[in-house]
């Protein structure tokens, strides 16, 4: 079995990334290095190698839509992540998969809010 920790460099000559862990280099080679984006916005053509980037994009560019991320190469029905409840507070764009999580979030505030599910 090979060394798990050390200094692992990407073997691609056009990539200068180095990794402390062998598993991180393996992930980089499999999913990132010179690979097309893996995740896509379901509402426009925006795509990224990172799911969180697409989630942030949907929250800021499509604020009235549920936060969804499509994994490219899978059927549209196979959505990787979907939030169905959006916080109604002004200046709060947090989204939640369950109604209960939204209630907990709202209970941490100082005033009672009305909220509805989206979806």
TrEMBL record:
Identify the InterPro entries for this entry: Asp_carbatrfase_reg_C_sf, Znf_C2H2_type
- From the Swiss-Prot or TrEMBL record, what is one GO molecular function term? RNA polymerase II transcription regulatory region sequence-specific DNA binding
Q: Where is the C2H2-type domain?
A: 8-37, 85-114
Mind naming one GO cellular-component term on file for this protein?
Answer: nucleus
Q: Which SMART domains match?
A: ZnF_C2H2 (SM00355)
Q: Name one Pfam family in it.
A: zf-C2H2
Keywords of the record, alphabetical order, are: Metal-binding, Pyrimidine biosynthesis, Repeat, Zinc, Zinc-finger
Q: Could you name the domain of life of the organism this protein comes from?
A: Eukaryota
Q: What is the lineage of its organism?
A: Eukaryota, Metazoa, Ecdysozoa, Arthropoda, Hexapoda
Q: What name does UniProt use for this protein? A: Isoforms A/B/D/L (Drosophila melanogaster)
GO annotation (BP), single = pyrimidine nucleotide biosynthetic process
